[in-house]
Amino acid sequence: MASTHTAPMVLDVPHRHDRHSPLHRAILRALGPLSGMRLLDVGCGVGLLLRAAERRGALVAGVDTAVERLEIARWALPDADLRVGDVDALPFDNGTFDVVTACGGVGTGTALAELTRVVRPGGRVAVGGWMHPAGCWAATFGEHLRRLTRRDSVPLADDPGLEAGLWTAGLAVLTTGEVGCPARYPSLAAAWAAMLGSEQLPLAIRLAGERAVYEAFVASVEPAMGTDGTVLLSKAFRYAVAMTPVRNA
Asked: Is the C-alpha dihedral spanning 149, 165, 26, 90 positive or negative?
């Protein structure tokens, strides 16, 4: 009898992992034609952005910290170069790619330098991150995580500014935009499971422990819970596409 244990994981992908899809679509539109280009997605998760990029003709690769997410990505992207790795030390040589994307935010200068390092001169870096309007659940959760981890473990795109970070890194910003990514979950448990599949949360859990992070999450999303137990988490993202310096001959 053929094994059936893989299929439920793959079928579960749309519910748990598509909350960034509007951001993916916006970034890919901003990047324009990708046919024949080498594209790396950092924090690729289950490979949703990579699948869309591959359909546009890109030669795709991905990095993620979670082996289980990469296993799902490999199921859908058998020809992709998918590796376990961290944004602060990408497992690729200098100038390997034409385009690098990072939709989960870039929280440190080291991380942004790594994105730039693996892109060829004149290539593009596309990054996105949460925007946290004052009073929203994500702003509250971000503050909890900063307090628990003593670091900016959930990078913000509007503090101090996504474009400012790119310019500081020596990149030329080509375009920016904002997009909303609402997600409704049938229960608090489902919302937490989705957060566990995010790019940012594993670091916070390693630093502060899962129980503390979970309690912070519950306190943050309580205002977003309906009387029927559903949870509506409205998130806004800001993104930017920049070009790496072109070296003179």
From this structure: negative
Examine residue 160 and say whether the peptide bond preceding it is cis (omega within 30 degrees of 0): yes
Instruction: For residues 27 and 11, give the distance between their C-alpha atoms in angstroms, rounded to a whole number.
Output: 25
**Tokens 């971000």 -> residue:** 142
Which amino acid belongs to residue 206?
R
Q: Is domain 17-243 given the CATH code 3.40.50.150 in the classification?
A: yes
In the Cβ-directed half-sphere of 167, how many Cα atoms lie within 13 Å?
9
- Dump pLDDT digits (tens) for 56-84: 999 999 999 889 889 999 999 999 999 99
* Tokens found for residue 11: 């079928």
Nearest partner of 119 among 212, 20, 41, judged by Cα: 41
- Tens of pLDDT along 27-43? 999 999 999 999 999 98
d(CA 131, CA 128): 9
Return d(Cα 91, Cα 82) in angstroms, integer. Answer: 10
